[in-house]
Amino acid sequence: MALYSYKLAPSVLSADFGDLRGAMDICKKGGAHWIHIDVMDNQFVPNLTIGPPVVKSLRKHTDKFLDVHMMVVNPEKLVEPFARAGADGITFHIEATDNPDEVISLIRSTGKQVGISLKPGTPLSAIEPYLDKVDLVLIMSVEPGFGGQGYLEGSSEKIKELKLRLNEMCLDRVIIEVDGGVKLNNMKEIVDAGADVLVAGSAVFGEQDPIQTIKDFYALI
Questions:
Q1: Is 73 exposed, middle or buried (CB count within 10 Å of its CB: 0-12, 13-18, 19+)?
Q2: Which residues pair with residue 55 across a beta bridge?
Q3: Which residues, 6 or more positions from 201, have their beta carbon under 8 angstroms from its beta carbon?
Q4: Which of 106, 144, 150, 198 has its CA 20 to 30 A from that of 188?
Q5: How many Å apart are CA 220 and CA 103, to the nearest integer?
Q6: Active-site entry in 16, 38, 98, 209
Q7: What is the DSSP letter of 37?
Q8: Measured between alpha carbons, how far is 218 from 63 in angstroms, rounded to an integer?
């Protein structure tokens, strides 16, 4: 695969749950780097989605990076189950725990990539104490819970602010991921702001030709 300035992570939240193996094939044929898996518990967010058994099944059908985004309360209880299921990266929400250091240490102990995320209304100052302890920061550019939402105004400025802070702290190794409302018509703005990984759900799986859509994402930059 050619080198690109960012990675695309199609979100299976918008795929056909009756044919997730087919979704893996789409990602492979389109050339996506990662596969994003939204985990929701109907408590932290008002929706219920995927658990470790589904991730274990997906692992059998893809060698791509499985990017697990836990939108759950008590995330520490699910770290090891998702790690055993085959996740490559595990991201938790700063708002979902009273002890972020414990969750970070737990994910690190499994050997998986450590990610931290924050809702649109949460300031970057909430995660700043943990930036040097994680591998990835996930900026939510919609309110978490449902796919198909529009990209929230001000999200690009938040990405730029995070990029600047990481540079100031000499943390260029930390990946910036953006999830929510990512489309072909705004992805360049998001990448220019500093994003390294773009999560796209309905923008990929909602299209008639999702394989070509993945290719189109890469062709634009």
A1: middle
A2: none
A3: 10, 11, 12, 13, 14, 15, 36, 38, 147, 148
A4: 144
A5: 37
A6: 38
A7: E
A8: 20
For the domain covering 7-220, report its CATH number.
Answer: 3.20.20.70
Six token digits for residue 15:
């795929």
Going by C-alpha positions, the residue among 191, 206, 187 that lies closest to residue 159 is 191
16, 23 contact by CB (below 8 A):
yes
Active-site residue (options: 63, 179, 192, 196): 179
> Looking at the DSSP assignment, which residues form a beta bridge with residue 36?
11, 67
Could you tell me if 75 and 98 are in contact, meaning their C-beta atoms sit under 8 angstroms apart?
Answer: no
Domain-wise residue ranges, the chain:
7-220
Measured CA to CA, the distance from residue 8 to residue 215 in angstroms comes to 10
Q: Determine contact, residues 136/124, Cβ cutoff 8 Å.
A: no
Q: What is the pLDDT along the chain (221 residues), one digit of tens a residue?
A: 345 679 999 999 999 999 999 999 999 999 999 999 999 999 898 888 999 999 999 999 999 999 999 999 999 999 999 999 999 999 999 999 999 999 999 999 999 999 999 999 999 999 999 999 999 999 999 998 777 788 999 999 999 999 999 999 999 999 999 999 999 999 999 999 999 999 999 999 999 999 999 999 999 86
Q: How far apart are CA 130 and CA 215, in angstroms?
A: 35
Based on C-alpha coordinates, what's the Rg of the chain?
A: 16
63 is catalytic: no
Enter the tokens of residue 65: 């990076």
Identify the three-state secondary structure at position 171: coil
